[in-house]
Amino acid sequence: MSKAGKPSKKKSKAKAKEEKIKEAKPSVKEIVEKISEPYEVVSKVLSEVKDIPSEFVDEVRKKLINDYIFKNLTEDQLRSEALELKEKAMRVLKVVEPAKDILPEALYYELVNSLFKACQKYEVRDEELIIIRDDAIRTYLSSMVDPGEPVGTVAAQSIGEPGTQMTLRTFHFAGVRELNVTLGLPRLIELVDAKRVPDTPMMEIHLDEEHKYDKSKAVEIARKIEMTVLENVTSSADIDLTEMRLIITLDPEMLEDKGLTRDEIIKALAKGKTLAGRVHPSEDDPNVIYVDLPKNYNDVLKAQKFRDRLLKIKLKGVKGIKKVIPQERTDPETGRKYYVLITDGSNLEAVLKIEGINPSKVRTNSIHEIETILGIEAAREALIREIKNTLNEQGLDVDIRHVMLLADMMTRSGTVKQIGRHGVVGEKPSVLARAAFEVTVKNLFDASIRGEVDNMRGIAENVIIGQIAPIGTALVELKMNPAKIKSVIKEVERGE
Amino acid sequence: MVEEKEIKGIKFGILNPDTIRKMSVTAIVTSDVYDENGMPVEGGVMDPRLGVIEPGQKCETCGNTLATCPGHFGHLDLARPVIHIGFVKHIHDILRATCRKCGRLKIPEEDIDRYLNLLKRLEDRWPQLAISLTEYVKRKAMKALECPHCGEKQYPIRLEKPTTFIEEGPLGKLWPTTIREWLLRVPERHLKVMGFDPEVAHPAWAVITVLPVPPIAVRPSILLEAGIRSEDDLTHKLVDIIRTNEKLREAINSGAPEAIIEDLWELLQYHITTYIDNEVPGLPPAKRRSGAPLRTLAQRLKGKEGRFRNNLSGKRVEFSARTVISPDPYLSINEVGVPLEVAMTLTVPVRVTSWNIDEVRKYVLNGPFKYPGANYVIDPNGRRLDLRFIKDLRAVAEGLKPGYIVERHLIDGDIVLFNRQPSLHRMSIMGHIVKVLPGRTFRLHLAVCPPYNADFDGDEMNLHVPQTVEAMSEAKTLLLVQEHILSPRYGGPIIGGIQDYISGAYLLSSKTSLLTMEQVSDLLASINYEGEIPEPAILSPKKGWLGKQIISLLIPEGFNFSKEAKISSGHLKCSNEECFWDSYLVIKKGKLLLGVLDKNAIGAQQPESMLHFLIREYGTDFGREFMDRAFRLFLRFIEMRGFTMAIDDILIPEQAYREIMEVYDKAKAKVDELLRLYREGKLEITPGRTLEESLELKILEVLSKARDEAGDIAAKYLDPFNNVFIMAKTGARGSSLNITQMAAMLGQQSIRGERITRGYRDRTLPFFKKGDVGPEARGFVPSSFARGLTPVEAFFHAAGGREGLVDTAVRTSQSGYMQRRLINSLLDLVVEYDGSVRSAYGEVVQLAYGEDYVDPKNTSFGKAINADRIVEKHIGWK
Prior knowledge:
The complex is a heterodimer. By secondary structure, chain A is of the alpha+beta class. Chain A folds into 5 domains: 28-143, no CATH class; 150-176 and 186-197 and 367-427, PTS-regulatory domain, PRD; 202-225 and 321-364; 228-316, 2-Layer Sandwich (Gyrase A, domain 2), CATH 3.30.1360; 432-496, DNA polymerase, domain 1, CATH 1.10.150. Helix content of chain A is 52%, strand content 12%. Chain A has helices at 2-24, 28-48, 57-71, 75-96, 105-121, 126-142, 151-160, 184-192, 209-212, 215-225, 252-258, 262-270, 300-311, 348-353, 367-374, 376-393, 400-411, 431-437, 440-450, 459-465, 482-495; strands at residues 171-172, 181-182, 202-207, 228-229, 234-240, 245-250, 279-281, 288-292, 314-316, 323-330, 337-344, 357-364, 453-454. In chain A, strands 10-11-3-12 form a 4-stranded antiparallel sheet. A 4-stranded antiparallel sheet of chain A has the order 5-6-8-7. In chain A, strands 1-2 form a two-stranded antiparallel ribbon. In chain A, helix 3 runs antiparallel to helix 4, helix 7 crosses helix 17 (400-411) and helix 16 runs antiparallel to helix 17. The N and C termini of chain A lie far apart (119 Å). Chain B is an alpha+beta fold. Among the domains of chain B are: 86-203, no CATH class; 320-485, Beta Barrel (Barwin-like endoglucanases); 499-641, Orthogonal Bundle (Enzyme I, Chain A, domain 2); 647-805, Topoisomerase I, Chain A, domain 4, CATH 1.10.132. Helices cover 38% and strands 14% of the residues of chain B. In chain B, a hairpin with a 2-residue loop joins strand 27 (750-751) and strand 28. The relative contact order of chain B is 0.05. Chains A and B meet through helix 5, helix 6, helix 7, helix 8 and helix 17 of A and strand 1, helix 4, helix 7, helix 11 and helix 26 of B. Strand 13 of chain A pairs antiparallel with strand 1 (10-11) of chain B, so a sheet runs across the interface.
């Protein structure tokens, strides 16, 4: 009775509130009209002033709307301003156009935008635009890597060196107080180790438009995902050897929390073959279930084992996901609140199939799961993000290029390879390089009985035998044709 | 001139018994080592034909002396063959994969052909796959219960570790003789499919019949002080082997019972196994008389102290020096101060030419004991003259001719490599220009401390002198400190202002610095400024210059820059040019117009700072010069003004203390309230946490808030422009937390992120009541450093501090290993001429380095071009 009464009360309260707001403030419709008015005016102006370069339309619109609201410009004034802006934009584009083929796309647009902004701020002459354009091109071209640069070593050092400054503390609250997440050095090591299962598997599940904004709907999905075992909803489980049955008393509070009923539990339990037909509800108590013991389970020890196994049976949810916590977030653009589910445990494959989530925005920290379900490119991307996040979280700046190189090295063979003797190093073609790293003796014995050849092409091998390794300035080889030299010498001699 | 040769490849294999005999200079036949006179016995393990061991001797085999004789192998014929411990696994595989009767691989002939073809194709391109294929073939053959060739029934073969093979069939225990015959029966083609190369490594050779005895140079004996010889571990082991071998042979020849022969055979197997590897699981390691396990062949190669990592991948070097470092702000960042003593020991080889002969003669004339002199002269024949023992230096100097090489002392201007361990990144070894100085320490500029991670609390550093012109020129163009100002880890300067440089820059550039003519002259003289002195900012009553004017003299004329300063926070916040607080830096056309220089402008490890863009846009030569001059200027100014941190800077009045205590009392009351709620079970539980955890979290929250409030109170009463605050605000040193801890309240001490709970049962220390979980009993310190800590507080503080020390110790080993693996995995990667990244073995890893070909070092915080910056650079003056 009381249960049924509660929600309706709440609802009525909420309604009352809404009505109050309505009285005090203009209606939603009015607000919308008021808000969209500048937008419409500006759109009208923009449609008259045609051919504003597409790169700048948004920028111009923003500025005009601003001016309309804060400077109270008339439509005509807006129009002339739009024309002026258009002229500036065209000028910028005309001058900077030649850089388009040289600069990477993102940089080009950034440059164009900066210039456009500068043009609005100051009087900029064409010559100055040209100087800036040329300087940008020159800067870009001169910032390219030099051939022979030992980028691998630099990347390894850039990622390894800050490791000494990282915290060792395994656990940290990553925004969510309720969950522990492995961070810092242990997480970094785990990533380069390509461990199959992370220390603390975790997922971040975004919901679809329907469920995103409503807490109760988000919780509903959370319940669907969270794995519930019998133990979670049981307050006691006693063995009754006289009747040869287990007496399982359910916890009504937990039942409500998990969104389960007794009948559902009985159904879920009876699904298993061994339990079919053995589960009965109690007639006297709505919270009690009887489970008959199999015949040969007649002593206490065996019965206890049976009980322990029974309590671990999954009633609902996704396997491996121990806890789901809905978290409130605010959309930085619209300011609207929405809910995201954070989970303890990860099971990408099963979660993707759940209805009500946004499958394109599911995140897991298990690289291995991403590799098997989404493929190697996704795994590479995930590796880059996870490593970068781990470093950033510790306040360490490492250029993304180093992390990309590391991830590429780990994934280039098509599967995620560990950084170490069971992965990248272990598969080097050079015997000496492998022997110098780890398991020296085994590598040498294996190499000798197979008759392996070390071609002395890598860095480690050449260091070992005392030759100059083909990297850096030594990458340059001088090719000489002795016959030609002879003829040159002869020519010189003849000349004298 | 010796012909230069390049090693193009190394082929690994097993020595053929015939080859062992052929390369042997003598058979080793006796276990005696020395005779009664102490001379080595012929045919013993120290046979003189195995190579020279004492200086002055001539080798009986090759006629060379100690320096040139490479040593020679002998050999030992074994009475019965034994298994080589390193190949047990492979032998086991072959025994299981081949027929016990005909020796053929237990796979039908046509399949073998197919696999052979496949293998040949795989070998070149996919060596890793080729290995997998051979494994697959072997596994497949092992499954056959019957030989597909001769139909013989097969039995499982068990390996009883370490070296015993047992057939669970009629043969029973397989002795090495049987195994050897079996292996010889396997056709070569079949061995190839299994991944073996019978030409260089026939598996039958893995059963040892002849043991090579290594030259004495490999196992030198050492002469102890008492005149007693102490033999190498390997020699001991060899003697054991020979002795057992003799006994075994005698037993066989005298027709001893089979059981005795077998026992001796097993013993021989044990000795040879431990001779090769003394750490075989399941075998007791051979021990020295002292009880320490012997270091035999495998142990010599293995691990960090093994041949590979200690002698091959890394080597000890000559021409190096090591001593304590100390600071010298009057050096250039490119320089290193070298003690005279070091400069007179380390040498640079100079080839005498007709252009430098006069100069070089002077060095030789000065000799090794007068600086700048020379230590050695090498004539064109390669003879080395030690000038220490030359009486007539004049004659040597006269005798110099082009073609001689003089090893002269280190002089100012030489390039050397300077290094501090741990060498975690390439900036740990940089090229410096020598500046010979009196004293006994290496001197370096303070701004290069961050890349080396050096301080002067007793740190030592190493110095290396490159010995060839190629090395010197590479060091000058690639390794010089100025080429490493910009870090490749992130796009930004790793070398820059630190500590007093930042305080000095702030003080000089702040609005309050008004300088007299004398001060301006002093400052400009300190940087050897030779230009005009600008118009004074104030003419009357006395000419006065602003610090900003002086700084402007160092900034190039066309430079435009604007950025928020570090001090721009709180009520000093400014984010554009209209700044009352002087916290927004504006430089237009090389003039510092507004704002102060602090960490955000000149700090080390600050990307997109004024310093960064100066270096990026004006080059490293300019960058070095700017830093040398500007930093010297800042330091001169801070010396002039005086800068110190005194107890007054952190002492707060009694009133403030009372306020802090009030805050603390309130916090205590709140904690008590929480505890009450907890005991009554009314405490709100944080979802996903237990009741206790929720309580702890809430207590921590309350207490940390209390400390913050205490800090705010202290800040309210302290002069916001006292020296400590200047350091914290400008980013020179310390943080507001440090000030809080010094002046107001130390706060909660923690171990593993929790309040301190360890100690006695139900309490941390015996002065507390059992079960007391209040703030003080759990490591909260309400005192400040300025007021002093009570003994109990000091104890908790020490406990928290200890955790930090342990943490660091553990972390270094973990991150060290991770770095070693990273380096070993990535070291072969190189950018090719087409901008792709490939391994040394030709595998493409990236088609475009970093997806845009850009070197992170040349970026501004990751971006190849910073569009806003380029616009500002050219028209920022508007």
